């Protein structure tokens, strides 16, 4: 049997790949069951009309770990919100989110739109990216999409790494947004 035909048959058909704009990734770890710092932060972020293009949360041993992203242009406002939550404490005092929040700059979301909802897709994508030493900061999956947050500068390399794993529609190239939508005050 032709090895190219065999390789094509092992690839998983998908509907497409999309790259996000540059993002900043935040990871929040709940310290106790009554810790409401993430809810408070998200309330303040929503009040500033900052969009979260990615949010995912899980729970282990009764405590939540959550990841969310904002556009790089909105990160300064999120940081100002964090400073406001600090309550004007002195430089030596720990802010309310100390030990709970980690920030990673220059992140991008690679979104894969599956076709035929293949359960093998997630595992093969993770194994392929790990083999290429591309770290995944967070991921979320649904029937319609698999979204992975990786270093922004590695989006193209990640898509190339996935070529032996996925079969894209003819003439498809990863879609990059040409503009960002910003909500304005009314």
- Radius of gyration, Cα only, in angstroms? 19 Å
CATH topology heading: VC0802-like
Helix vs. strand class: alpha+beta
Give the overall shape.
elongated
The topology string of helices and strands comes to HEEHEEHEHEEHE
Count of strand segments? 8
Specify the CATH class: Alpha Beta
Distance between the termini: 64 Å
Oligomer: single chain
Protein model, in words:
This protein is α+β, with helices and mostly antiparallel strands and 186 residues long. The chain has one domain: VC0802-like, CATH 3.30.2130.10. It has five helices and eight strands. Strands 1, 2, 3, 4, 5, 6, 7 and 8 form an eight-stranded mixed β-sheet that branches. The longest helix has 12 residues, at 120-131. The protein starts with a helix and ends in a 19-residue tail after the last strand. The mean pLDDT is 84.
How is the topology of this model organized?
Blueprint lengths: L2 H8 L1 E8 L3 E7 L7 H11 L6 E7 L2 E9 L3 H11 L15 E14 L5 H12 L6 E4 L4 E6 L3 H7 L4 E2 L19
Could you write a compact summary of the structure shown?
By secondary structure, this protein is an alpha+beta fold. It is built from 5 helices and 8 strands, in the order αββαββαβαββαβ. The N and C termini lie far apart (64 Å).
């Amino acid at each position: 049997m032709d090895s190219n035909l065999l390789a094509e048959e092992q690839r998983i058909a998908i509907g497409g790949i999309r790259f996000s704009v540059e993002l900043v990734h935040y990871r929040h770890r709940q310290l106790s069951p009554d810790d409401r710092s993430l809810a408070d932060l998200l309330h303040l972020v929503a009040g500033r009309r900052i969009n979260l293009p990615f949010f995912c949360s899980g729970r282990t041993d009764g405590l939540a770990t959550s990841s969310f992203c904002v556009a790089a242009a909105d990160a300064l406002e999120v940081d100002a919100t964090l400073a406001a939550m600090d309550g004007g404490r002195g430089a030596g005092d720990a802010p309310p989110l100390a030990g709970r929040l980690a920030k990673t700059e220059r992140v991008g979301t690679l979104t894969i739109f599956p076709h035929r909802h293949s359960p093998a897709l997630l595992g093969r994508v993770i194994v392929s990216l790990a083999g290429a030493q591309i770290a995944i900061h967070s991921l979320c999956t649904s029937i319609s999409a698999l979204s992975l947050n990786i270093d922004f500068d590695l989006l193209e390399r990640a898509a190339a790494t996935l070529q032996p794993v996925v079969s894209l529609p003819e003439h498809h190239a990863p879609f990059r947004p040409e503009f960002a939508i910003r909500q304005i005050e009314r």
